[in-house]
Every structure is written in C-alpha cells, then in structure tokens.
Amino acid sequence: TRIMAHHPKTSPITTTLPLDPQRHISAYGYTQAKALVYPKHGSPADVLNLHTHSISPPHSNLITLRTLAAPLNPSDINQIQGTYPTAPPFTQDLGTAQPSAVPGNEACFEVLSAGSGCTNVTKGDWVIPRRTGLGTWRTYLQVTEDKVMKINREGLTAEQVATVSVNPVTAYRMLTNFTTLKEGDWFIQNGANSGVGRAAIQLGKMWGLKSICVVREREGAEGEALRKEMQELGATVVVNDEEIMEKGFGER
Predict the structure, then answer these.
(1) Which residues pair with 63 in a beta bridge?
(2) How far lies 85's CA from each of 28, 88, 183, 226, in Å?
(3) Active-site residues: which are they?
(4) In the prediction, which pLDDT does 13 show?
(5) Burial 146-168 (b: 16+ CB within 10 A, else e)
(6) For range 8-32, the mean pLDDT
(7) From the CB of residue 35, how many other CB atoms can be counted at a distance below 10 Å?
(8) In which band, very low, low, confident or very high, does the pLDDT at 29 lie, cut at 50, 70 and 90?
(9) Alpha carbon 233 to chain centroid distance?
(10) Binning pLDDT at 50, 70 and 90, where does residue 55 land?
(11) Predicted TM-score (pTM) above 0.85
C-alpha cells in the first residue's frame, strides 16, 4: 500500500509502507484488512489508530477492493481535525469499539472480487472513488460497485490514477470556470510547484496557453532545478516571489 504525502507548497512525496504486501485470507475466505480510523476530531497524531478487521466474500453488488495507492492531501488532514466543510461519517461498520471514521478521499483500488450482481466492474479492474468521503486510508475495503468508477489503466501508474480527482480537477476548473481562455492567452499562478499548479501548467501547455508561474525563492542549485522542472512541464515563465515584486516586473 502506498501512502503519498502532498504538501501545498511542494511536489508530491510517495512513501511505500510495508502494511500489507500480500493479501491475507483466512480459512473461511475472509480478507484480513487494516484501516486508519479516528473516533473524534483532533490532531492526527492524537486521534488516529490502526484498526484490524475482517471482510467477508462479496455478494450481490458488493466488491472487495485492494488499495494500490492513496494520497495524503491537506484537505484530508483538515477533515481529521474537523475544520473541513465535509467529513466521512462516524460508524461502527468496521467493528470498532466506538463510532469511528476512516480518513482519505482519493485512491487507486484493484478489484479483488465482485458479487454475482455486479455488472460494471470485474476482478483485476482499477477503480477510483466516485465521490469524496469513501475513506481510503486502508489496505482493503468492501463497497457497492456504484461507489467507484472504472479507470482505463493502460499506460498509467497507480500513483497517477490515485491523484487524478482532486488536484487536476481543481486546476481544470481554475482555468475554465472563471473566464474564457483561448490559445495564446496568458495566465499567472502562485504556488506553481504545488499539485494544482503542476496540473495547471500541463493543461495550459496542452491547450496552447502561456503561463507565468510563481514559486517560493530557493537559493542556488535548488532554485535552478525547480525552475528547470517547471519549464519542462510546460511553464512559459518561471519567477520566484522576490522577482515578481521587483520594480518594472509588469513591463517585463
């Protein structure tokens, strides 16, 4: 299971955790699963616990999923803290001692098995949550097939699939919802090396847009490396937050 950390000012960090390298099945066909849960809102370090539970074989329109990758976004932390507008429900569906919620909104899952009533997905398919709040920070889960969306996995990694529904979608809306941009137009963004910023650069390049991308000042080789990386993604101009404040920048 891969947990990916996304900080709003840095590029995504992917860490592979040895939580569940193999599928664990009991003699009765139950899948042994682990989930991070929290019984109340608060600091993640204070309220998160690792809970182990069993998942029965799927029937009807149920599917059993294995988590291939799940990102960690700032909004996920805010949900645990109780400061985000939406939050997953507190239940005892996993057999916890008290009602608890599972954090995480994005993930790439592999379908391990499907009930006889399933018509949209089959074993081996890759899927993502259809909506937020599914609770993705776990090794396995079981949901009805209408809770997920099948993905054409050809040429894609689990990390790419797991991060498609928050940052790229935000970038898409940022470039399309507020004004009409046509080929050759310019847009400017700060935090350009964030997940949303990187997606906006790539979308802009694909649509023929030109971009001014502002990043935090970094000295020496680190700053040059970031500037080169942004340009390779498709940024037209990359400047740091000190340069953009210089007199005459607008005329440049």
Answers:
(1) 114, 143
(2) 41, 11, 36, 33
(3) 84
(4) 46
(5) ebbeebebeeeebbebbbebbbb
(6) 55
(7) 23
(8) confident
(9) 20
(10) very high
(11) no
